[in-house]
Structure formats: structure tokens, C-alpha cells
Amino acid sequence: MDIKRIGILTSGGDCPGLNAIIRSVVKASALKGWEVYGIPYGTDGFVEVAHGKYQAEDLLLTKHGYALPGMLKGLDVLQFLSGSVLGSLSKGHPEQPDIAAAILKGYAMLDIEALIVVGGDGSLDIIYDLATKGNWHIIAIPKTIDNDVPFTDLAVGFSTAVDIVTQALYDLTFTAASHERIIIVQVMGRDAGHLTLHAGIAGGADIILIPEITPCLTPEVIRGCCDQLVNLRQSGRHFALIVISEGVHDQNEQKNKYIADYLAEKISQTSQHLCEIKDPSFCDLIDLDIRATTLGHLQRSGTPLSFDRLLATVFGIKAVELIEQGIYDQVVIWRNGQVEHTDLQPIIGIIKKCHQENRCAFPVDKDGFMVKTAKSLGIYLGEV
Q1: What is the purpose of this protein (predicted)?
Q2: What is the pTM of this model?
Q3: CB atoms inside a 10 Å sphere around CB 310
Q4: Roughly what angle, to the nearest 10 degrees, separates helices 97-110 and 121-134?
């Protein structure tokens, strides 16, 4: 196929490195004489095309900027910027027939011959179904701070998010030490603990709680946290740093938006109870100041690290190469330090099955080297 026009979109939650992907796709395509069309706000952009808000020429990307009103000029700086200049918002779900029909119509109106989809597991699942209905030629690029896309060791955005959380833990350590506080930090990751585990180890956490090992905060887990805090005090440490993933559930096995605050309350209650039943070692915990902090969307921002820029760049170039070779329905992956590609369909199958079962498609390996590393450092992981 003589390729002349391709599209690119970013979908789902934003993360550092998305703009670097866009930049590399446009640069690599320009050298081949291809036109690249940036679809604004994920699949919503196709709906807007179908409704006449955009014409194809409005979405044309060049080496020097965008024709889109309000978009950033000077494409070369994109590798340094977080977020996505294309936007990454999904207002409607394509399971609604009218929305799906508009998306398919908008795609056809742009007359593009292939589409590069930059997304996490949820976005890839949705867009794969649309691509199947519309007979689209797609290449997927994994991006997510959760790092939960199967078959790839790393997704774009994960490394920078780990660095952001690690820096936050470093900063919080000093205020914890100054005030002899226990600080509990709630970290993103949805149902995966990769971000919490990596940053917790790098940031010097004393306790790391992730859903793969601690699905919920049972009384045994809370008691284990109290034991760890007592051990630290007996060793001369009068402060502590606890990192908990948002995917950990409460004692009732329910998702809790404020799981860090919940954990703080349970540690205080359990310490009080243990002190009252004549175990004096826990009495020292009663008056300790416990503070909970939720990092929130700060984890999605910040200048992408050099590695995320490089990963984004090579992923984008690989996607263009696959299109040139006429190899479609692929996902670009990073495995064993190399850029590779694999069929998208098996990955989508895993994602769909895991979504139906409400579990992570690419969880932390409980027997993996990162978990072993944490244990070797004496970090309490909540295992019972």
C-alpha cells in the first residue's frame, strides 16, 4: 500500500511522554512524504469531524506546528512537555450506537490509511473494538503511569511518574523526621502496584502496600503495620514513611477513595487497643502524629525524564515503520531492553478477560525481583 495519510490520537489518562510520541511520528512520517493528522481528544475527535467541527486540513500536523486553533507552535519542543497537545478526553462511550456510528463516520471522512493509537489498557480495549467494526489499520503504543499493559516491560510515562513519586517521598521524609510523624502517602496505579512498589523502594518507604499482595486492609495487615512502626521506634527511628496504592481496599473489601486516611485511622485505633490490653510497646504509637497525603494528579505531570522521551521516540518511529511495512493490528512493546512488536489481539483478549473479572491485566509479580528487593530491605509489604 502506498501510504499517504495517517492519523494519531492519544486517549485515556495523560502522562509524560505523549508529546514526544507525537513529535517522533510526525518527524519520521515527514521524511517519507506522509501527511499526519492529529485527532483531538481521542475518539471524540472523530465525532467532531463527523459533526462538521473540523475539516481534515484543520488537523494536519507539520514539523513546525499545528493548524489547530490554540494548539502549541513549534513541534520540536514537544519532547520536553508533559500532557498531550492533542488532548486526551473521552466524553462519550462508543458502546452507545450513535456515538460509535459518529466515530466510524469521522474516521472515514478523514480518509486516513492507518491510525496510531496511544493509550492504556482501557483505551486500547475500546479502540480495538471500533477498529474491528470499521476495518481500521491500527498500531498501538502503550502509555500509562500504571504500567499495567501486558507484554511490555515498560509503558511510556511510567519512569517519570516513578521519579515524581520518589521525589515526593524524599521531600516528605524530612518533614516526617522533623516532627516525628508517620506520613502515609497514597499513590495512583488503579489496580496495579507497580508505581507504588518502585517509588516506595526508591523513596525509602518503611511500609509498602499494593493490591497484588495486600488486596484489603485486614486486621492482620493493620497489626503488621503497627508491629513495623514499633520496631522502628525501638531501633531509634521516631518517624516513618508508608506508601499505599489506591487499589488497596478497606477492611470491608470495598474501594475507598481516601484509603490513606482510612489506614491512618485504623493504625491509631489498633495502637490504642493494643496498648489497652497491656502491651506497652504500642503505647508509644498512640500520641504519634499520623498524616495522610494524596499525591493525586501531580503524578501525571512534570517534564518527562530522558528515558521516557527516548522510549516515546523509538515507539513512535517503530509504529511508523510497521505502517510502512503494512504490518497492522500490532502493539509496540519494550522487552528485554529492545523495541519489539507483537499482535494486538492476544493483548486485548487478556485485557477484556481481566476487566470482566475486575483484576489487573499486568499485575506486579509477587515472586518477582522487585518484591524480593523490598523484602530484603526489611520493608513491610502487608503479607499475611
Answers
A1: Catalyzes the phosphorylation of D-fructose 6-phosphate to fructose 1,6-bisphosphate by ATP, the first committing step of glycolysis.
A2: 0.93
A3: 16
A4: 70
Read off the pLDDT of residues 216-273 as tens digits, 9 standing for 90 and up. Answer: 999 999 999 999 999 998 898 989 999 999 999 999 999 999 999 999 999 999 988 8
d(Cα 323, Cα 146) in Å, to the nearest integer? 27
Annotated binding-site residue numbers for Mg(2+): 121
Residues 6+ apart with CB under 8 A from 369: none
Which residues does the annotation mark as catalytic?
146
Q: Which residues pair with 290 in a beta bridge?
A: 182
Residues 17/309, Cβ–Cβ less than 8 Å: yes
* Cα dihedral sign, 57-94-135-11: positive
Q: Which domains does the chain have, with CATH numbers?
A: 5-157+304-335 (3.40.50.450), 160-301+366-376 (3.40.50.460)
Binding residues for ATP: 13, 91-92, 120-123
3-state DSSP of the chain? CCCCEEEEEECCCCCCCHHHHHHHHHHHHHCCCCEEEECCCCCHHHHHHHCCCCCHHHHEEECCEECCCCCCCCHHHHHHCCCCCCCCCCCCCCCCHHHHHHHHHHHHHHCCCEEEEEECHHHHHHHHHHHHHHCCCEEEEEECCCCCCCCCCCCECHHHHHHHHHHHHHHHHHHHHHHCEEEEEEECCCCCCHHHHHHHHHCCCCEEECCCCCCECCHHHHHHHHHHHHHHHHCCCCCEEEEEECCCECCCCCCCCCHHHHHHHHHHHHHHHHHHCCCHHHHHHHCCEEEEEECHHHHHCCCCCHHHHHHHHHHHHHHHHHHHCCCCCEEEEEECCEEEEEEHHHHHHHHHHHHHCCCCCCCCCCCCHHHHHHHHCCCECCCC
- 120 close to 360: Cβ distance less than 8 angstroms: no
- Which of 293, 175, 282, 283 has the alpha carbon at shortest distance from 239? 175
Tens digit of each residue's pLDDT (9 = 90 or more) over 79-94: 787 888 898 875 556 7
Per the annotation, binding residues for substrate are: 144-146, 181, 188-190, 246, 291, 297-300
Residue type (1 letter), 37: Y
